[in-house]
Amino acid sequence: MPQVVVNMEEKRRVKRRSIPDEDDDSESEEERLRDQRDREELERHLKDRDAAATRKLGEAKSTRREEEFYVVFPYISVSGFASAVALLGVQKVFFLVEVGSFDVYDKAVGGGSGASLPSIVLKVSRQEYLKKREEKIVNQLRDEIEDEQYLFDGVKLTEAEYRELRYKKEIYELVKKRSEDADDIDEYRMPEAYDQDGGVNQEKRFSVAMQRYRDSGAGDKMNPFAEQEAWEEHQIGKATLKYGSKDRKQKSDDFQFVFEDQIDFIKASVMDGVNFEDEVPSESLDKSMEKSAFEKLQEDRKTLPIYAYRDELLQAVDNHQVLVIVGETGSGKTTQIPQYLHEAGYTKRGKIGCTQPRRVAAMSVAARVSQEMGVKLGHEVGYSIRFEDCTSEKTLLKYMTDGMLLREFLGEPDLAGYSVVMVDEAHERTLSTDILFGLVKASASFAMEMGRTTIWAREGQIRGGKLDIARFRPDLKLLISSATLDAEKFSDYFDSAPIFKIPGRRFPVEVHYTKAPEADYLDAAIVTALQIHVTQQPGDGDILIFFTGQEEIETAEEILKHRTRGLGTKIPELIICPIYANLPTELQAKIFEPTPEGARKVVLATNIAETSLTIDGIKYVIDPGFCKMKSYNPRTGMESLLVTPISKASANQRAGRSGRTGPGKCFRLYTAYNYYSDLDDNTVPEIQRTNLANVVLTLKSLGIHDLLNFDFMDPPPAEALLKALELLFALGALNKLGELTKVGRRMAEFPLDPMLSKMIVASEKYECSDEIISIAAMLSVGSSIFYRPKDKQVHADTARMNFHTGNVGDHIALLKIYSSWKETNYSTQWCYENYIQVRSMKRSRDIRDQLEGLLERVEIELMSNSNDLEPIKKAITAGFFPHSARMQKNGSYRTVKHPQTVYIHPTSGLAQVLPRWVIYHELVLTTKEYMRQVTELKPEWLVEIAPHYYQMKDVEDPGSKKMPRGAGRASQD
DNA sequence: GAGCACTGC
Description:
Layout: H1 8-18, H2 25-48, H3 57-62, E1 68-73, H4 78-88, E2 90-97, H5 104-107, E3 119-125, H6 126-153, H7 159-181, H8 202-216, H9 224-239, H10 248-259, E4 265-271, H11 283-290, H12 293-303, H13 310-319, E5 322-327, H14 333-343, E6 351-356, H15 359-373, E7 381-385, E8 388-390, E9 397-401, H16 402-411, E10 418-423, H17 431-450, E11 477-482, H18 487-493, E12 499-502, E13 509-514, H19 521-535, E14 542-546, H20 550-564, E15 573-579, H21 585-588, E16 599-605, E17 618-623, E18 626-633, E19 638-645, H22 648-656, E20 664-668, H23 672-678, H24 693-701, H25 718-730, H26 742-748, H27 754-766, H28 769-781, H29 793-801, H30 810-823, H31 828-833, H32 838-857, H33 869-880, E21 884-887, E22 893-895, E23 901-904, E24 917-925, E25 929-936, H34 939-945, H35 952-955, H36 958-961
Parallel strand pairs: 5-11, 5-12, 6-9, 6-10, 7-9, 10-11, 13-20, 14-16, 14-17, 15-16, 17-20, 23-25
Antiparallel strand pairs: 1-3, 2-3, 4-13, 7-8, 18-19, 21-22, 21-24, 22-23, 24-25
This protein binds one DNA strand of 9 nucleotides through helix 16 and strand 18.
């Protein structure tokens, strides 16, 4: 029976593991010793093949030819074990693994007896194993190759065909010779029971074995050899031919691809499937056909795993103010919980809000729930995302993006309209959820200090991390839903809030690791994909490979095309689908097209496929273990994108992508040891690696003064906070006491970086708000405006330079782009002609519209002054004066305030012009320290606009400035 | 002569 696991018991268990010194030493000591033993075993294993650890390509590859390797037998019986030992010439039992758990090494057991063993990993001799495989090659190749002999004589071959054939022949000779030498084939015979003629007819033997395997099905645990056979078959298939194939040429290609360059995987664990067998009961299917769609939806609701927990859940919500809900994918938590709460009457006291990290999620979930409730979207059920508020007075269930709720917080700090707030997907730890948590907790602990009475706090009264404008809301329920890993952490953060667990529904996923680290993961990924493609039935599932970015995806695409080119029908068709966020939308659609019969799709994706979009039909996931991650250096104010190893949470998320429509497999291009010891448990939360200027402004405008003591779940580096405070002070958003000024209050209204907000606020003075909001909108869509296809780079670049005539600077160029587009009545054709991405332009139009609305709110008149660029540049300077740089003699630049050497980004219109003084939008660290989006300015503007920040000595002639201190040049020189 | 993972307001 389902049960509420509210749970001190559960908590204690986990505590014990993480804090070993606590009360029960004996057990943790034992655990520690066991861990150590496992570790030692593992390290020994690693030492055995230490050459593998090299980063060099050649060496790493050579390790694939090691003399010993490991075979995994899951669910094996004792007799099965004995047969396996005999069959494979086992040299050593390496260790035992419990299947069905990630904690392979954690839970490895020492003994080998017992009636039902868990999985066994055996160390076998490669040579022995090869012999066995080769015997099969001989049988299958012989006839075909002999058939082809005549080709050498009569027919003129192409070079490729000739080599192919020769290669095949060589292998044949080699194999034949070896099996003749080793006249001990019988030693490797399949066990008698599998061998109807007791003997020599190898082909029959294999087909019998294969038949048994097919009959028994992959998941059949009654047949101890089923999985083993499947595994072997897979191994054999990888190295040789597709079993039963009639296409000769295909086989030779297999050799070309896989035999030479094969990657060995160890199946290490299985992510258990949960409840995947209890789909809609079949007998109810017929009945439901007759019912209305609405009734059917109601029935579907009852088949969700969460349905069984409905009453307990409502009880738990009733009893606790904060509840952490652990619901795995497919449990139905996002759609059902708000409905349950509504049915239980919570909506009588106020709305139920449910936050999502992504816009599409908020929209689609709302649409689904409105269907289930039989109401029109936007009435009782609605959603609210930026640019689109689909709610009304009637709305009771409101799905929204987390950033949207944060914005609402600004206008309504007690969330008066809500009776329940549910933060979904909290484990993703977006910037907004982290801030929301801090805010809610501050208000909750404030409530606890003040007791049960409802209290209005007077503004400014309470300091030290507590809200001063929030009203205590003892009736507000907070639900936090998260994936398994983080639940304890959330619970601890919210003063041991109870945890409610709901099982999910997904299919099991086999996880395979490489035996040795792969030095070139791009190549390894491609080889693995081809291995899968060639050896597995087409049509059984598509492949998803994770890469770090566009460039990698493009090269992978080329290599794949190159390797499959000219093979025509020799291998099943392979459809290559690249996907990344910057890919034009019409090309993105390709991945959602169903795979044609007899073909296989291979999707080359960035992280976008990890959470943001789901592709049906994926059965194989290849995970090289890297992604690009933004990091921010608060000291230099420099951002950079670094290729970083992913976290365990990420790796599991990726693996799970293969088990959405059926059992899946995940091939990790790193070793199990890497996984357990090198990968972090969780990705560093965004709040710890980003520029906090906007966060600080938001919190300040909510009346939170003491940011250094604000209770963040994972506090950001103090340096980043101080840097943000310093910047806000310089911009005039905060006064010397760190309090929000009038300027700051206006700035906080804009959903932009504070420097952009300041630029807009300052545009009032320079009477050019119309132009400035266009620039701000263009700047905030970022760098995806220009479209630069590989084959038309020159055209794209000349098109771009057209906007730079007169060396007006990048900001003005962006303005020109926007206004030209507007003049063509927002023409798509115009965008194509100028190599500009329509999507980005539409987005900047949306942002601009929003900003225009907000101008009214902060009472800034929309004024245009397009003929004179100087006021526009001055307004930009008013926002970006801390980002000034001066040219040095060698053409590099030096930032004025916190001196460091930087360069103009080559894509800038001013890259060749090199003005004496520039102002830049952002610093990025790529191959060099670059300033992106640069505009020329007059140095005296700095002193005029920001006298508190610059003095004359900062901006005078470089000649005097560059001299060392006290070198005798007075500043008046 | 570089190179922009992904969200969100």
